[in-house]
Amino acid sequence: MAPTPQPQLSGNRLLTTLAAWLCLGIATLACFFPLAFHPRDLLVGPQRGGANDLTLVFLASRSFLADESAGIGQPPGWNPYALAGVPFLGNPQAASFYPPNWIFRAFEPLRAASWFLVLHHFWAGIGTYHLCRRIRCSWFGSLLAGIIFLAAPYLVAHSGEGHLPQISVAAWLPWGFLAYLRFQNGLPGGIAAVATVLSLAFFAGHAQELYYLVVILTIFVAIDAWQLVRGKLYRETARYLGNWILAGTTVVGLVLIDLAPIVLYTTKAIRSSGLSAEQGGVGIQLANLTQLLNPWGLGYPVDHSTVPFFAEMITHFGLLPLLLAVIGTAQFRRHYLVRRFAWLWILGMLFAFGSGSPVFEAAYRVIPGLTFFRAPSRILFLCSLAVAVLAAYGVDALTVSLELTDQQRQRRLRWLIAAIAVTIGIGVAASALRPSDTAGSHLTGLDNQPAPTAANPIPQIPLSVASRALLRPDSWFLLCYSLTLITACLWKPTHRSWWQIGIVVMCGVEFCAFSKTVLRTIPPESVRTDSPLVTFLRDHAENDRIAAPQILVSDREAWTHDIQKLEAYEPVPLLGTVNVWLALTGLPEVGQQLMGFEQVNLRRMHKPFADLLGLRYAITTEELPKIPPGWEFRESGEIPPEFTLRGQRAETTGYAIYENTTPLPRAFVVGQVSLIEPDLDVVTRLRSFKPTEEVILQQDLLPAGPRCQFAAATITKYSTDSVTVEATLDQPGYLVLSDTWYSGWTAKDNEQPVPCVPGNLVFRAVPLSAGQHVVEFRYESLAHQSMLIILSSTIAILLAATAMSFARRTSVRPSDGPPPAETATPRPADSV
Fold it and tell me: Collapsing DSSP states into helix, strand and coil, what is residue 717?
């Protein structure tokens, strides 16, 4: 492909770019006006009293990352404060190497996380603006596209749910298409641009949206290559595809430092074998299409019990942006990029239906790696971007009205006036037919639906509810207003600037009204700090574990105060972690308990295994009428909620602390070995063996002879990535540490390396001889020397190749477009 040098920034172009950035900044503040009015607050949604992924997990995760990185000088590899110990580096959503996360080293996540989200929306708007300018859209059309994407309802709803990694990746989506256009046109640095953007999107911490982007860009590249083949440019085809493979290889080299631990984690997690089409294909429903007209047609975010996963299933793009996207597609359907974004939008919507949709079923069978992701509706991130880009073309299509003949203009006006009359009629009829809503009654059709289960996680929305959604008169009158605005652009095209202002105002009203409903804030003074529970545990549970629901002791509180809490909000836990919880509770499913969303049930808890875990305290939300054997009541009281929405009153929650009277020491020695049996049921074996008499191993590493008796060992140092234990043995035996075993844990006995093997199936064990021992356990993840060398080498090669591409830059002026076999429709002149 002929290289296409970018036009130099003139003073006027630079000023228009700065003006666009300023307007996008104002639009971002307007969209997030609840936070702009209270800049020190925490941004959340109204559902569940503000409890979302940000407050439940990402505040804890980002605080842990910032604190530990500052202490050890690198991202932590292990988190010992959750689920008996879990990998931190390797968790797909930890985002350990994402550069913007460094802001949390300078500012407390509780204060910075909200603006972190908002700045990513702003970055998404800037990327969309530059993408549209790159494909020759007008200044105003590009600006409007940036506003539409940064304030897209799907993105804002996810921000209300606290989906920090998803928004971080979504902010890079337009930059990914911009990098692709640079690569497509053979510009210098095209490979580097693709590799940099995709790598940063990967480090952002949520691979699903990036995966969809890579698949789409690869399809675009395949179409480009086919066009070159049709033009019999076989050498150029080979070079083009080779460069794309090189770009992909470079991405792998850049992200391998995080990718390798993630792959290892995935192979040991509950999704190691992927998801079935039914499990992973839960998407939107036909009823959700009514949200194209009105986002509240099926309910509000606060109706979480009847409208679960509102953020995942909202299909609203804004009425006026939707109309503009349709107009842009119709007017410029011959333009290859319009066709591609239109197909992206249409096929993406069909894919979002998930299992049962022919598009999803075909993709599920053909595209490798799709089985590891659930919620195909997340393709709506890309659909929102496609609508924004097509809306930019739609705005430019209205400027084409200046070139229409009077007859053409009159014909289009007649159609628009007829559409306005129809929408007014429907709106009047809807007002007459729609029954008056009473509080909580607008979703009556869902009241008798069965509760969500693993097989049916989202209740089916009856068509009666969807039909009632279509009777909302506000939707039809808003549609009428949008059509009237478009009609005015055709009626008086010479007043284009005024109509453009009207379009911005209309979009602003739509998006701000949406934000007002889905966003709330939490004032800093209402955040729970140093609760009596945390104070008690900090004073009494030094190296002991506790069990407590999130409502009483959150992950943020536990990890900040070095409290080792068994529960943690981890949607994709390790298989070993699940086995630990199954053995502890005896329940068939432990998801909600493992994540801390259910009450601690002392009666169902398997006491011997709780002893083995070193579980010292269990905390419940109420005093038990009858205390199970082996537990003693310590104290009770009340605490406020961790977070309280602005304008709401905090309601206290009661708690009761129970102490285990017979926990085993966290580290101990034992001599006798029981080998793992073939076809072993792990949970049954964990609930049946006696840890004070034997240790379960794959192989006995000690010589035959007398063995030591059970005895406690002493933990002298306990930190994130290392544990030091002192033990004295009168005979050979095994030191057992009741922390999760995982690849990467090594051990040294008196400074000499010794094997660190799985003991008791899920914990750590070290063979020791008779005598005194100082054993140091240390965690070294895959992201060390070799990965750092690969990362540094890839960066060096990429910089050298980019410098050479700029050195070879020619003076050939390319056509800003696709391969030679396609031609781009000329764009209208810039409006600014």
Answer: strand
Taking CA atoms, 391 is separated from 141, 150, 228, 273, 483, in Å, by: 7, 14, 29, 41, 14
Q: Where are the domains of the chain?
A: 51-324+351-381, 535-660, 667-779
Q: Are strands 714-718 and 653-660 parallel, antiparallel or unpaired?
A: unpaired
| Residues ≥6 apart with Cβ < 8 Å to 380 | 154, 284, 314, 315, 348, 349, 352
Instruction: Look at residue 137 and give its three-state secondary structure.
Output: coil
Q: Give one DSSP letter per residue of 188-245, joined into a string.
A: TTHHHHHHHHHHHHHHTT-HHHHHHHHHHHHHHHHHHHHHHHHTT-HHHHHHHHHHHH
Residue with tokens 């490979």: 191
How far is 360 from 438, CA to CA, in rounded Å?
38
- The mean pLDDT of 229-244, rounded to a whole number, is 91
Give 86: exposed, middle or buried? Use CB within 10 Å, 0-12, 13-18, 19+. Answer: buried
The residue length of the chain stands at: 832
Tokens 């580096």 label which residue?
89
Say if CB 567 and CB 550 are below 8 A apart.
Answer: yes
What is the DSSP secondary structure assignment for residue 282, as one 8-state letter?
Answer: B
What is the mean pLDDT of the segment spanning 506-513? 88
CA distances from 111 to 39, 42, 105, 171 (A): 9, 7, 12, 21
Sign of CA dihedral 787, 793, 798, 799: positive
pLDDT of 818 over the 90 cut = no
Buried b (16+ CB within 10 A) or exposed e, 574-590: bebbbbbbbbbbeeeeb
- The residue type found at 29 is L
Tell me what pLDDT residue 442 has: 43
DSSP 653: E
Rounded to whole angstroms, how far apart are CA atoms 318 and 822? 32
DSSP letter at 623 equals -
Calculate the CA dihedral of residues 58, 61, 62, 65 and round it to 10 degrees: -170
Q: Tell me the pLDDT tens digit for each residue of 673-688.
A: 999 877 778 888 888 8
pLDDT above 60: residue 545: yes
For residues 546 and 482, give the distance between their C-alpha atoms in angstroms, rounded to a whole number: 57
Give residue 448's pLDDT: 39
Q: How many whole angstroms separate alpha carbon 739 and alpha carbon 433?
A: 63
pTM of the model: 0.89
In single-letter form, the type of residue at position 205 comes to: G
109-134 helix and 139-150 helix, angle to the nearest 10 degrees: 150
pLDDT band, very low/low/confident/very high, at 11 (cuts 50, 70, 90): low
pLDDT in tens, 127-136: 999 999 999 9
Residue at 298: amino acid letter: L
Give the Cα separation of 423 and 779 in Å (integer): 65
Return the SS3 of 608: helix
SS3 category, 603: coil
Cβ 667 vs Cβ 735: under 8 Å? yes
Angle at 308 between CA 439 and CA 207, to 5 degrees: 150
pLDDT at residue 785 is higher than 80: no
Mean pLDDT comparison of 296-300, 772-776, 823-827, highest-scoring range: 772-776
d(CA 273, CA 260): 17
3-state secondary structure (DSSP) of residue 427: helix
312, 377 Cβ separation under 8 angstroms:
yes
Say yes or no to pLDDT of 368 above 90.
no
Residue 453: pLDDT above 50?
A: no
Give the count of beta carbons closer than 10 Å to the beta carbon of residue 3: 17
Nearest partner of 640 among 746, 530, 549, judged by Cα: 530
Contact yes or no for 271/216 (Cβ under 8 A): no
Calculate mean pLDDT across residues 12-16.
Answer: 86
- Report which of 210, 143, 136, 141 is spatially closest to residue 172, judged by C-alpha positions: 210
pLDDT digits (tens, 9 = 90+) for 640-657: 999 999 988 888 999 999
Torsion angles phi and psi, residue 349, rounded to 5: -65, -40
Task: Please say if the pLDDT value at position 828 is more than 80.
Answer: no
Tokens found for residue 274: 């992927």
